[in-house]
Amino acid sequence: MPRNRGKGSGFEKKIASRYKRAGYFIERNKVKNGTEIDIIAKKKRQKKLVIETKAGKQVVTSSVIRKLAEVARSIKGKPVLVIGPRVSLTKPAKKEAKKRNIRIRKVYC
């Protein structure tokens, strides 16, 4: 079934482009262990980054954080959540991200 390509797809593309300019090799929309990963960024001699992007006006819950942490762990990557300016996290999500050492980056693009 084709994936719905909404506003998040453009945001995801911009974020992938930023990592590519920073010297990372980029893989987009890979399915690992039954879960789609927005971006996998790899750089020589560094742990790969497993990047989940969220754009538009939405609220990220702790279940999103747990899912990101689990898929990153399963492929031996470092989880990163990149959010747009209108995205917010619930208090439990912030707590879960801190507990699981997930880097959260807010991007204005």
From TrEMBL:
Q: Which SUPFAM superfamilies match?
A: Restriction endonuclease-like
Q: Which residues form the Restriction endonuclease type IV Mrr domain?
A: 8-103
Q: Cite the Gene3D superfamilies for this sequence.
A: 3.40.1350.10
Keyword DNA-binding belongs to the record: no
A single GO BP annotation from the record?
DNA restriction-modification system
The answer to whether the entry has keyword Secreted is no
Alphabetically ordered keywords of this record: Plasmid
Domain of life from the UniProt record: Archaea
Q: Name one Pfam family in it.
A: Mrr_cat
Question: TM spans, by residue?
Answer: none
A GO term for molecular function: endonuclease activity
InterPro entries registered for this protein in UniProt: Restrct_endonuc-II-like, Restrct_endonuc_IV_Mrr, tRNA_endonuc-like_dom_sf
Spell out the protein name for this chain.
Restriction endonuclease type IV Mrr domain-containing protein
Name its species: Thermococcus barophilus (strain DSM 11836 / MP)
